[in-house]
């Protein structure tokens, strides 16, 4: 099997001098490239010192990439400062351009300067480029015991439309074995750092292919698809649910997998290319964190938290070898006040876009922002272009559904973990819709009970049992009224009693007499009320059981009334005649006992009636 | 980017109060419900006052409604 040199060979053909007059004005006096190959996401930091050698001011700097690299380019960022020394740099806007007269095998990006670079001036330009799927596993299939070897291809010369005076390239490798690397003059491998250069006076579009073949056992975690759902509740929570479909994107496993013998006994010798855990850095104060899949909770997870972050380490159900995949869901809640703000009458969510997982490549990221029901005027501001559309989600206690803003972006890397904002309008009154629904629900339940108790559900309206029931209802209602009257009577008794107590303290016989008079009047009134009720009970055929008790009650009560009045009169008389307290006590003691006995009987009768 | 004037939005009721509010409001609601049903069961059909029933029912449902909302919120179901 030939090493994958074909693509590089193809590019050599491309190397030709296309120095048009306009581009020749710029000269790169120094280019330093640092390539980080420690993970599966390749980061290249290119520091350029650009000089304007022409007479016309230049406002754009072109950056060239071979198409095979450009299609794997996940992010490109340029920072520039003008002047002799490097100062505070500012981000330069970058766009893709197609200048005329250039080979079709190259893709060009143009960094626009904030102000044109005049003659003789120097610009320091730092370009960070991040590539995915750049490292090719070679061999493409390995056994469980093998290490994973990957191939990196690039040019030892900086590919640029401008001449480069001095340049270097340094490649940081993850450590471990280096199988081979292209050797030119000025090539050094020190520890895990591979250095090319310095090269001097290189022509524009110079391409000098290099290949590095080395061991890289770092997790090649690739999420085929990640759906991130961010649900805002104005009751105080931002709930995040992330559905992962993760695959090991490195060299495929060939042959059988021996778990018990090889993997568990000597995991580091017999499964180095696999990865068994992932680390997620969640925001501080994340709570209610869970980790599960279709079958249920996955218990192999660990959590640490401090005031700045929450770190979650999760182990999938099985270690992932090359080509294996697993799906799972993690979810967590975040405090509302950390992520939702209001400004200028609008509210907005300010949260990071990408996944909290470390060094993960997401091939397709879908972020769904579920806004509370009743949100209007939804608007988004993201730091990079995304596909956007809106949906409706039905969740707990919803009527019209919640508006969902969906953002989709392919090839998301940790560099895309930037904050984005979703603006919307929401009235706090809408918060009350949910409790109102619950209240209405409960109230309807009560109304149903009231209606059931008030309606007459019997079918035959003139059957004897139905009529008997009606009569019995009537008797019951009357008995309840009678009970009420008796309770009033007892209250009047109590009043008389208290007036006697007052008398013994103050000796004011007049007010006591007045109280008796009032009580007498009340008794008469109550008796008048009682009469028709008693008659109606008596006349009802259903009352044969109750009537004797009622009669008894009436008699007892009357007797008690008389006794009470008599005792009251005696006490008042004695007080008026200035008798001693002891004598009064003696005179009424027998009455007192009778009254107490009667009261007990009356009360037990009333209780009996209320139990019917 | 957003300006410094942006103000953080927090919940209308502090989140820490939810469990207490849930217990208090649900228990008050259940007591009122109990008194409602006791009244329904013990008073005869002729003596029952509709106004009293409606008033008890509505107060009970307000307490039960808010109580169950706070039960949901306290248990992590953010509606």
TrEMBL record, chain A:
Pfam families: Ribophorin_I. Keywords: Coiled coil, Endoplasmic reticulum, Membrane, Signal, Transmembrane, Transmembrane helix. It is a single-pass type I membrane protein. Residues 581-608 form a coiled coil. The keyword Lyase does not apply. It is found in: Endoplasmic reticulum membrane. The chain crosses the membrane at residues 431-453. Pathway: Protein modification; protein glycosylation. GO terms for cellular component: oligosaccharyltransferase complex. InterPro entries: Ribophorin_I. Residues 1-24 form the signal peptide. The keyword Magnesium does not apply. GO terms for biological process: protein N-linked glycosylation via asparagine. It comes from the Eukaryota. Subunit of the oligosaccharyl transferase (OST) complex that catalyzes the initial transfer of a defined glycan (Glc(3)Man(9)GlcNAc(2) in eukaryotes) from the lipid carrier dolichol-pyrophosphate to an asparagine residue within an Asn-X-Ser/Thr consensus motif in nascent polypeptide chains, the first step in protein N-glycosylation. N-glycosylation occurs cotranslationally and the complex associates with the Sec61 complex at the channel-forming translocon complex that mediates protein translocation across the endoplasmic reticulum (ER). All subunits are required for a maximal enzyme activity. Belongs to the OST1 family. Component of the oligosaccharyltransferase (OST) complex. This is Dolichyl-diphosphooligosaccharide--protein glycosyltransferase subunit 1. The lineage of its organism: Eukaryota, Viridiplantae, Streptophyta, Embryophyta, Tracheophyta.
From TrEMBL, chain B:
The keyword Membrane applies. Keywords: Membrane, Transmembrane, Transmembrane helix. InterPro entries: TMEM258/Ost5. GO terms for cellular component: endoplasmic reticulum membrane; oligosaccharyltransferase complex. It is a multi-pass membrane protein. It comes from the Eukaryota. It is found in: Membrane. GO terms for biological process: protein N-linked glycosylation; response to endoplasmic reticulum stress. The chain crosses the membrane at residues 20-42, 54-78. The keyword tRNA-binding does not apply. Component of the oligosaccharyltransferase (OST) complex. Subunit of the oligosaccharyl transferase (OST) complex that catalyzes the initial transfer of a defined glycan (Glc(3)Man(9)GlcNAc(2) in eukaryotes) from the lipid carrier dolichol-pyrophosphate to an asparagine residue within an Asn-X-Ser/Thr consensus motif in nascent polypeptide chains, the first step in protein N-glycosylation. N-glycosylation occurs cotranslationally and the complex associates with the Sec61 complex at the channel-forming translocon complex that mediates protein translocation across the endoplasmic reticulum (ER). All subunits are required for a maximal enzyme activity. Belongs to the OST5 family. This is Dolichyl-diphosphooligosaccharide-protein glycosyltransferase subunit OST5.
């Amino acid at each position: 099997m030939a090493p994958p040199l074909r693509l590089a060979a193809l590019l050599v053909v491309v190397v030709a001098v296309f120095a048009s007059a306009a581009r020749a004005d710029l000269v790169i006096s120094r280019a330093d490239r640092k390539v980080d190959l420690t993970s599966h996401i390749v980061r290249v930091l290119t520091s350029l010192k650009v000089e304007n050698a022409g007479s016309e001011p230049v406002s754009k700097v072109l950056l060239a990439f071979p198409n095979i690299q450009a299609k794997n380019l996940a992010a490109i960022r340029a920072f520039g400062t003008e002047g002799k020394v490097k100062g505070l740099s500012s981000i330069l806007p970058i766009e893709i351009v197609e200048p005329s007269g250039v080979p079709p095998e190259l893709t060009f990006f143009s960094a626009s300067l904030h102000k044109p670079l005049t003659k003789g001036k120097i610009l320091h330009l730092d370009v960070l480029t991040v590539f995915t799927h750049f490292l090719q596993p070679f061999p493409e299939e390995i056994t469980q015991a093998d290490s994973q070897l990957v191939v990196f291809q690039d040019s030892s010369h900086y590919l640029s439309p401008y001449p480069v005076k001095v340049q270097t390239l340094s490649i940081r490798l993850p450590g471990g074995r280096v199988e081979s690397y292209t050797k030119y003059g000025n090539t050094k491998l020190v520890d895990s750092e591979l250095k090319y250069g310095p090269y001097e006076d290189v022509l524009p579009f110079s391409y000098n292919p290099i290949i590095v073949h080395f061991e890289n056992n770092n997790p090649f975690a690739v999420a085929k698809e990640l759906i991130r759902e961010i649900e805002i509740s104005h009751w105080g929570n931002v709930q995040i649910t992330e559905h992962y479909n993760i695959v090991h994107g490195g060299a495929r496993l060939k042959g059988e997998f021996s778990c018990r013998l090889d993997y568990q006994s000597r995991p580091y010798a017999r499964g180095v290319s696999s990865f068994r855990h992932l680390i997620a850095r969640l925001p501080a104060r994340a709570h209610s964190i869970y980790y599960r899949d279709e079958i249920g909770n996955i218990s192999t997870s660990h959590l640490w938290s401090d005031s700045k972050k929450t770190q979650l380490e999760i182990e999938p159900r099985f270690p992932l070898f090359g080509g294996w995949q697993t799906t799972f869901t993690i979810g967590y809640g975040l405090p509302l006040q950390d992520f939702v703000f209001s400004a200028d009458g609008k509210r907005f969510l300010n949260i990071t876009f990408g996944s909290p997982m470390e060094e993960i490549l997401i091939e397709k990221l879908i972020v769904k922002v579920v806004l509370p029901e009743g949100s209007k005027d939804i608007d988004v501001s993201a730091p990079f272009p995304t596909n956007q559309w809106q949906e409706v989600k039905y969740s707990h206690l919803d009527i019209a559904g919640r508006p969902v803003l969906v953002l989709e972006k392919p090839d998301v890397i940790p560099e895309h973990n930037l904050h984005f904002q979703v603006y919307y309008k929401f009235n706090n009154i809408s918060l009350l819709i949910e409790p109102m629904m619950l209240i209405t629900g409960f109230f309807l339940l009560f109304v149903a009970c009231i209606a059931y108790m008030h309606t007459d559900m019997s079918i035959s309206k003139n059957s004897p049992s139905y009529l008997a029931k009606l009569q019995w209802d009537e008797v019951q209602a009357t008995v309840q009224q009678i009970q009420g009257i008796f309770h009033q009577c007892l209250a009047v008794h109590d009043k008389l009693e208290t007036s006697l107590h007052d008398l013994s303290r103050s000796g004011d016989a007049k007010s006591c007499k007045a109280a008796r008079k009032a009580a007498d009047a009340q008794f008469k009134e109550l008796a008048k009320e009682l009469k028709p009720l008693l008659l109606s009970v008596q006349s009802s055929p259903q009352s044969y059981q109750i009537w004797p008790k009622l009669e008894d009650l009436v008699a007892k009560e009357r007797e008690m009334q008389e006794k009470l009045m008599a005792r009251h009169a005696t006490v008042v008389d004695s007080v008026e005649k200035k008798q001693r307290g002891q004598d009064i006590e003696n005179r009424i003691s027998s009455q007192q006992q009778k009254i107490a006995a009667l009261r007990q009987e009356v009360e037990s009768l009333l209780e009996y009636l209320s139990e019917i | 980017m957003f300006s410094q004037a942006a103000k953080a939005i927090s919940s209308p009721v502090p989140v820490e109060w939810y469990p207490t509010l849930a217990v208090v409001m649900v228990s008050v609601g259940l007591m009122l419900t109990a008194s409602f049903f006791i009244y329904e069961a013990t008073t005869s059909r002729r003596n029952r006052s509709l106004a009293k029933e409606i008033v008890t029912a509505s107060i009970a449902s307000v307490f039960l409604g808010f109580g169950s909302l706070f039960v949901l919120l306290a248990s992590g179901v953010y509606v």
